[in-house]
Amino acid sequence: MTSVTNGITIERWTRSSRLALGSVAVAVVLFAIAPLALGAGAIDRMTALFIYVILAAMWNALAGFGGLVSVGQQVFFGLGAYFTIRLADAGLNPFLSLFAAALITGAISLPLSFFMLRLKGGEFAIGMWVISALTHMLVNLDRLIQGETGTSLISLNVYDSSTRRVVIYWLALASMAALLGILFALLRSRAGAAIQAIRDNEDAATSLGVRVIATKRLLFVLAAFGIAVAGALWLATVTTFQPKTYFSVQWTAYMIFMVLVGGLGKFEGAILGAVLFFVIETFFGSMGVWYLIGLGATAVVFSLFLPHGLWGEIERRFDLRLLPVGYRLKLPGPTKIQWNQ
Amino acid sequence: MIDTLIQGILLGGYYAVIACGLSFMFSVMRIINLAHGSLAVAAAYGLWLLASTFGISPFAGLLIVLPVMAATGWVLQRYLLERSSRGGALLPILTTFGLAIVIDNLMFEQFGADTRSLAPYIGSLSYDSWELPGSIYVGKLAVMTMATAIALLGGLQIFLTRFALGRAIRATAEDPDTAGLVGIDARKANALAAAIAMVTVGIAGAFLGMRATFDPYSGGPQLLFAFEAAVIGGAGSLWGTLVGGVVLGLAQSLGAQVHPQGFLIGGHAVFLAVLFARLFLTGAPFVSKIGLYKTGFTKIRAAIRSTP
User: Fold this and answer.
1) DSSP readout, B148-160?
2) What is the reported pTM?
3) In B, residues 24-83, which contact A (CB 8 Å cutoff)?
């Protein structure tokens, strides 16, 4: 807590946020030992939840903080899975392949960013979709993939199914914790101040000397890497690779739903959105088409009436910050200043 | 080879039809409507429904579907886009994307996964062709699509330059606040522009259904084609859209000659190549402002300035 003047203080950590960080640490430990108690089905579902959290957090990093709405993020999801197949086929250990594939995808996203970040708003959004559609076609050309028939990550079969399940669960948990940690640290760093300035007002940030493009590139590459990790992990859980299901715009639809409902540009919002999506999918996923209609309609309603999502609303009403990435001003006396965009 | 080129050029007519609404809406409201393709497919389903249940020919069906599309555009702008664009430039992307998911899946729920076509309801038009010297055949429908594209673009051009309503739309596109000063209701102008855009989407849907098959999830690819054609032509420029459509159609037709998957790859590749060239040759963002419509409004503004 820094004292400024007249008793006004600037604070980052509050009691509730210290408590929250502590509970996060406890939760991660509990999740880590959970496979001892959980059945096979539950472990698989939890792995899916971790992957959803990664997807939501990464899409939120790009759109919520970087102001870059993409409807083509499935390209990185698909590439993460594709390169895993390729590397495993070349003889690399399948678990190592997962992360090597994500690194390759992240590396590819760097030159791509020089090109795509020149586009603005909706042009960037659909431009990414075109990139994804083209990549999908090119992956189909690979003989190993056999077109839309697809292939599977056969080298995983050397591990027996229960070991495999738990290892993938731990990898997903560790990836989620690491990626969230990286994002959290990034947002609280000097670059984070720049990121949040861009989120709030890009023109104003530029005029203050914030290096907008470099900052956005950082987020673009991070999101590409994170989503590739998610794609590779997804491949590990289902083992089959059909280009159509990985390069499907549906993945972006899920990411958009999670982030819009949870809270665009809110660190906690993406996590909340992923958990809600997971719960909704568990109960309504079997409804098929009506489930998808419901997701789309919810996204429309949130974009119209609650653009800051549920977490934005919670933050505003209860003045609550659990994982603070910004600062806030505290005035002497009972008055509280609320920070709204 | 000449045959491929001619087919490619004519295919461009369809892309010009589907792209002009997207380009028009973008130039007026600065919104890229991600539900554009899905709405075109919805119009095609509307025509299919009229034809298959009531035996109404798709051409007569347009008399019903186009007013419905216009009303849809008006409602879309007044109740969804106007509201979400108040929250910044990014929200309309999310709103229209959510809308696309809703439309696609509602169509799937209603019509199932079967592919449909309007070809059975237009008699021999779907396969009739004229023979050119050198035994080259050009489909009558393809020629008709191209003629419609030219008529549509020409009609829009005349509407925007010669009619008061068109000038109001142009003025709003240029600067809504200044347009307000000269008594133009920007909200109405925007809603009207959305209605016009949706009419062109309805026409595009009709041609989509007549020249090929469609299914509930065809909207996504159609959106990409429309976007590519609009961008290649320089979005916001009406006649550029025609050029963009032809370039896209040519690239796809030539790509298909090279490889079975070359149709789509060729289209996407030429789009990226044009983008790349434009970004690095001019250094400017590629989607320009609506240069084409400017002249008329500059006069209005000059008139305002000269008024004491």
Assistant:
1) HHHHHHHHHHHHH
2) 0.87
3) 26, 30-32, 34, 80, 83
